[in-house]
């Protein structure tokens, strides 16, 4: 019989599991009516009480009045004292009636009332519980992290299997005693490399999707904010909030573009590495079996690999060129946003010099692209000449 005073099997629980507050950080809420979605838009931003270069966290979301009531109910389960502070919210239709009656723009004071309510909820419930409940950050993040890890392992496993098949094909090629044996080894290697490239592409497409989604969301948010800024019927307070939203989503958009470019570059670097390895092994085979035997059985494959290698290099150089152009555009945006202050001329000169450096790299990429295109055209011309010579 187990002792009742044993601690085996018990789990330690924090006295206040939802309290992980940072006293050096406070939250600012911005609440506005979203005319497009007919919902309440809530933006919450951390603001440090201390000087810091660390980028603050920002949460945002659109909520129906039923969503706000639901979040209020969840908070009250932990902190019942919050119950009387929820302001009176307009009624919303649900179910079938929602298709016939769309929400109307509420009283202009409702946004201020919800903003005041959120500040009270922050004081009573704490930052962690409020953010996790309102934006569902904790539970959703935990769920997607598990599913995402499973998908990642699946893609990485496919890459490992394809790499093993490629190594087996390379090993068989090394054991070949003539070019007839090498033809079978080349076919096995081609299949393995194709399979490997597909597996790598699927992994990078998986990693790419969140940034593609973020880019799409950012474009929609920027468009919405721009429409509000250009609307003469909007007040200065709304436009001021829209400027903040515009700057935040502009940063998100640029970050998404950078991440997308980096992933594409990683993919093309991988394919270039595989093609370069195939070319190097074929050149070694040419030395091993003799030029005449090699050209009879494998020259066509070598030409194809060299052409594919040039095409992949051009793709990579195009991406590098695009990256340099984006960096130059960032500097130009900095120049446009410069404020009148002492030392403005010196700072302007520095940024212009940085922009010229990026433009120089763009030109260098264009020259490199032309060089590779010239190599590709010469290889195609040489292949045509050899084919014509063989037919004579």
What does this entry look like structurally?
With 392 residues, the protein is mainly alpha-helical. It contains eight helices and three strands. The protein has helices at 65-78, 109-125, 127-135, 137-175, 179-230, 236-289, 291-336, 344-391, and strands at residues 25-34, 39-48, 58-63. Strands 1-2-3 form a three-stranded antiparallel β-sheet. Strand 1 and strand 2 form a beta hairpin. The longest helix has 54 residues, at 236-289. It is elongated, with a radius of gyration of 31 Å. The model is unreliable at 1-21, 95-101 and 138-146 (pLDDT under 50).
Identify low-pLDDT runs.
Answer: 1-21, 95-101, 138-146
Structural class: mainly alpha
For the largest sheet, list the strands in their spatial order.
Answer: 1-2-3
Number of strands: 3
Quick overview of this protein structure:
The protein has 392 residues and is mainly α. The chain is built from 8 helices and 3 strands. It has a 3-stranded antiparallel beta sheet with strand order 1-2-3.
Secondary-structure blueprint:
Layout: E1 25-34, E2 39-48, E3 58-63, H1 65-78, H2 109-125, H3 127-135, H4 137-175, H5 179-230, H6 236-289, H7 291-336, H8 344-391
Antiparallel strand pairs: 1-2, 2-3
Helix pairs in contact: 1-3, 2-3, 4-5, 5-6, 6-7, 7-8
Index terms:
392 residues, 7% strand, single chain, disordered N terminus, 8 helices, 3-stranded antiparallel β-sheet, mainly alpha
